[in-house]
Specification:
binds zinc ion; hypothetical protein PF0899 fold; four-stranded mixed beta sheet
């Protein structure tokens, strides 16, 4: 289950931030996950419960935003929502498109107890 290793790297990043800012623990964490990032929400939930006890994220309220996948058609330039990678354009049927959003897997913000430190989002 790769969700577990994802949660463990989130724990690592959070521990790092807490140490860097001399905080105690994370109060709130906001994640952005694209619908094509390969993350199963229930598996993520399960992995979270398994991985956070005794870490700085133990008491953190988590807020997960699931982002729908969007693409721009290479032929007609219309933007559309993708259910799966390589879905054809609904306007013209073209298969080539540029993915605009959907593979995100990032920490949007983290609130450390005592102070607020937004992490750079890229
Ligand atoms: Zn098109």
């Amino acid at each position: 289950m790769h969700e577990l290793s994802i949660v463990m790297s989130i724990v690592d990043i959070a521990s790092e931030q807490v140490r860097e800012h001399d905080a105690d623990y994370v109060e709130r964490i906001e994640l952005e996950i694209g619908s094509l990032a390969g993350i199963e929400p229930q598996a993520l939930e399960f992995a979270w419960e398994a991985a956070v006890p005794d870490t700085v994220l133990e008491k953190a309220v988590r807020n997960i935003h699931y982002l729908p996948a969007r693409a721009r058609c290479a032929a007609c330039s219309q933007e559309f929502e993708l259910q799966q990678l390589f879905d054809p354009c609904p306007h013209c049927g073209e298969y080539f498109s540029d993915l605009l959003q959907g593979k995100e897997l990032r920490i949007k913000t983290m609130t450390l107890i005592g102070k607020e430190e937004p992490t750079p989002s890229n």
